[in-house]
Write a structure and sequence with these properties.
The protein is α+β, with helices and mostly antiparallel strands. The protein contains 19 helices and 8 strands.
C-alpha cells in the first residue's frame, strides 16, 4: 500500500494522518478479528522506522536489522488475538525488537564469517558516533519503566505531538506531557553518566517495499502459512521469539494464579466485600436495606505495633481504587476534581468525601445531608455513624466515625484549596502524582479536613495506620504500596502536581516481610510448594539432559544450527539466573 493509499485508509477510518487515525489497539483488534491487511500495514507504516532503528542499534548491520524488524512484526501478527491488556503496541514492539535483535546478534557472533549476511558498505556504520549514540540511547530507554518508555518512543522517536500521543495511547495530554518530561530528564541524567549528550532522533521513513512485504508476510504468518513471503532467517527469529513468549506466558500465568489465589483467599478471610463479589453493598443508609452485622468492638493497636498483611493491602488498595474511580466520575461530571462543599462565602462545610457519595452508590445517604450546613450541625452530625465501608481501613473500632483516607491539600497539589483543578493541570503526570492516601491521624469522614501542606514549611508528619507500608492511590486510579520510610523531600515530589521533579516511583517500593500470621502461613505453604517444584525441575533437567545427549549423537547428521544455538543460549541464560537466585538466597539466609 502506497503512502496515498495509507492516507485514504486513514480517512476511511476517521483520521487524516497517522497521529490522528485509529489507535494502535483498534488496529490490532481489527486485524485479530478480520485479518485486515490494511490495518496491519498501517501499524507497520507507523512503527517500522522506530523498530528498524532499534534493531540497527543492536545489530549494526542493515540486512540483519531488517530481518529482526520483520520478525518482530510477524510475532505481533501471531500474537494479535491475545494482545488485549498487554499495554501499548509501541512499547510491546520495542521490547520484542530488542529481544529478537539481541538473540540474533548472539547467534551471528557464534557463526563463521561466511555464514553471516553480507553487509552493505556504508550502511551499517556510516556514522560511528551516531551508532554509538543510538546504542546508548536504546539501552537507557530499555531501563525506563513502561509508563515513561512509551511517550519517549511515540514523541521523541516517532515525532508525534502530545495531542497525537494522547489519542494514540488514550492517556490525558497532561499525563503524556508529564511522563515525557520526566523520562527525558531521566534519560539526560543517565546518558550523561555514559558521557553522551541528549540529541534529536531522526528516523527515516520506512521503505514501501518493507511495509507492504512485511504486512503480507504477517497476514500469512498469522494464518500459519508464510511460504516464500519471508526469508528462513526471519521465520527462525519469529518462531524463536514466539516460542519463548509462550513459555514465559505459561510461567507468568501460573505465578499470577498462585498470587491471586493467595490474595483472594486473604481478602475473603475478612468477609467478602461488595467490591470483591460484585454484589451491591447492604448498608443501613439505603432505603429498605438491612443493617450490616456490627463488627466486634476492639481496641485499636498503635501503628508502630501493626503490620498490613497481603489481605489487608489488597483491601486497602481496593478501597483506594474505588475512591479514585469516584473522583474520576465526579471529574467527568463537573470538569474538575472534587472539592470540599463550601458556603456562599467560601467557607468549607463538608468534606469532598461527602461530595462523591453519589459516585460510590450512596445517593440515599447523600440526600440526607444538608449541604448548606456545617459537618457538625445537628442534622449532619447524626449521619457520621453511617460512614461508608470504603472509608474504613478495617482495623477501626466498630463505633469509629473517623477515616484514614485523606488527600494532601495545599499550594501546588491537585487539591489546592480555592481552586477547581483538572486532570490537564497535573503536568507531572497522573501516574506520578498522589491522589488519595491512607494516612493519619484520622479525621471524621464528613469533616472538611485533610493533611495540610505548605511548600514553605516542613512536610507534615504522616502517621499510621501501618508501620510496614503506606498505601496510596495515584491520580491515574492505580493503587500501590509505598515504603513509609521514604524521605519527606522525596515523598513531597509525588504530592505536587507540576514541580517537574523526576523520581522513579519504583524506588519507593516497601521491602515487605512475612510478619502477620496469614503471611507467615502463606510463606510456609509456598516454601513447601517451592521445594516440591524444585524437585520437579530437577527431574525435568535430568530428562532434558538425556535428550540433549541423544541430540549430540545426531549432531553430525545435519542438525539445525539455529536450534542448537537457541538451546545453547537458553541453557546459559538459565544457569546465570539460577546462580543469581542462589546468591540472593544465600545472602538472605546468612542475615
Amino acid at each position: 500500500m502506497s503512502v496515498p493509499a495509507i492516507r485514504n485508509y486513514l480517512r476511511a477510518l476517521g483520521g487524516g494522518e497517522a497521529g490522528n487515525g485509529p489507535a494502535d489497539a483498534e488496529l490490532i483488534a481489527r486485524f485479530a478479528a478480520h485479518k485486515d491487511e490494511s490495518a496491519f500495514e498501517l501499524l507497520v507504516w507507523r512503527h517500522a522506522p522506530l523498530i528498524q532503528a532499534v534493531c540497527r542499534a543492536v545489530l549494526r548491520d542493515h540486512h540483519a536489522a531488517e530481518d529482526a524488524a520483520q520478525a518482530t512484526f510477524l510475532v505481533l501478527a501471531r500474537k494479535a488475538a491475545t494482545f488485549a491488556n498487554r499495554g501499548s503496541v509501541v512499547g510491546w514492539l520495542y521490547r520484542v525488537a530488542r529481544r529478537i535483535s539481541v538473540r540474533h546478534a548472539r547467534q551471528r557472533a557464534r557463526l563463521p564469517a561466511s555464514a553471516t549476511f553480507d553487509q552493505v558498505p556504508g550502511r551499517e556504520s556510516a556514522d560511528p558516533a551516531a551508532a554509538e549514540y543510538a546504542k546508548a540511547l536504546c539501552a537507557e530507554v530499555d531501563r525506563l519503566p513502561e509508563r515513561y518508555r512509551v511517550p519517549v518512543l511515540i514523541c521523541f522517536f516517532e515525532g508525534l505531538t502530545h495531542a497525537e500521543a494522547a489519542r494514540r495511547t488514550g492517556w490525558p495530554i497532561g499525563t503524556v506531557a508529564g511522563r515525557l518530561s520526566r523520562a527525558k530528564e531521566l534519560l539526560a541524567r543517565r546518558l550523561s553518566r555514559r558521557g553522551v549528550a541528549m540529541g534529536a532522533v531522526a528516523l527515516p521513513v520506512a521503505g514501501g517495499n518493507f511495509v507492504g512485504s512485511t504486512a503480507r508476510a504477517a497476514v500469512a504468518y498469522a494464518r500459519g502459512s508464510v511460504a516464500s513471503l519471508a526469508s528462513p532467517t526471519v521465520l527462525t527469529l519469529a518462531q524463536g521469539a514466539t516460542t519463548t513468549m509462550t513459555t514465559t506466558l505459561l510461567k507468568l500465568t501460573a505465578a499470577a494464579a498462585a498470587v491471586m489465589c493467595a490474595v483472594t483467599g486473604g481478602v475473603w478471610a475478612f468477609g467478602p466485600s461488595a467490591e470483591a463479589t460484585g454484589e451491591p453493598q447492604v448498608e443501613a443508609s439505603r432505603p429498605g436495606a438491612a443493617a450490616p452485622a456490627a463488627p466486634v468492638p476492639q481496641a485499636e493497636p498503635k501503628a508502630a505495633e501493626r503490620n498490613a498483611g497481603a489481605a489487608q493491602r489488597a483491601l486497602s488498595a481496593n478501597n483506594l481504587k474505588q475512591i479514585m474511580l469516584a473522583m474520576h466520575n465526579y471529574h467527568d461530571a463537573y470538569g474538575h476534581f472534587p472539592t470540599d462543599i463550601l458556603d456562599k462565602n467560601g467557607k468549607p462545610l463538608l468534606s469532598w468525601r461527602v461530595a462523591i457519595l453519589p459516585y460510590i452508590e450512596y445517593d440515599a445517604l447523600y440526600k440526607q445531608f444538608k449541604l448548606d450546613e456545617p459537618w457538625d450541625s445537628d442534622n449532619n452530625k447524626k449521619l457520621l455513624k453511617q460512614m461508608p465501608r470504603i472509608y474504613r481501613v478495617g482495623i477501626e473500632p466498630a463505633d469509629s466515625v473517623a477515616t484514614y483516607y485523606q488527600v494532601i491539600a495545599g499550594q501546588g497539589t491537585a487539591f489546592e484549596p480555592g481552586n477547581k483543578l483538572k486532570l490537564t493541570d497535573v503536568t507531572d503526570g497522573t501516574s506520578n502524582t498522589i491522589g488519595v492516601l491512607e494516612a493519619g491521624p484520622p479525621v471524621e469522614w464528613t469533616k472538611p479536613a485533610d493533611i495540610a501542606y505548605d511548600p514553605k514549611k516542613a512536610f507534615p508528619k504522616l502517621d499510621g495506620p501501618f508501620q510496614n507500608v503506606r498505601m496510596v492511590a495515584m491520580l491515574d486510579g492505580s493503587a500501590r504500596a509505598m515504603n513509609p520510610a521514604v524521605k519527606a523531600d522525596v515523598f513531597e515530589k509525588f504530592v505536587t502536581r507540576a514541580d517537574g521533579e523526576v523520581v522513579d516511583i519504583d524506588e519507593t517500593k516497601p521491602d515487605l516481610k512475612a510478619t502477620t500470621k496469614e503471611d507467615k502461613e502463606l510463606a510456609a505453604k509456598l516454601s513447601k510448594e517451592n521445594v516440591e517444584l524444585a524437585k520437579q525441575v530437577a527431574e525435568l533437567i535430568t530428562l532434558r539432559e538425556k535428550l540433549l545427549l541423544r541430540a549430540a549423537e545426531k549432531a553430525g547428521q545435519g542438525a539445525s544450527l539455529d536450534r542448537l544455538l537457541q538451546e545453547n543460549e537458553g541453557l546459559k541464560h538459565y544457569i546465570e539466573q539460577v546462580k543469581k537466585e542462589i546468591e540472593r538466597m544465600k545472602q538472605e539466609l546468612d542475615k
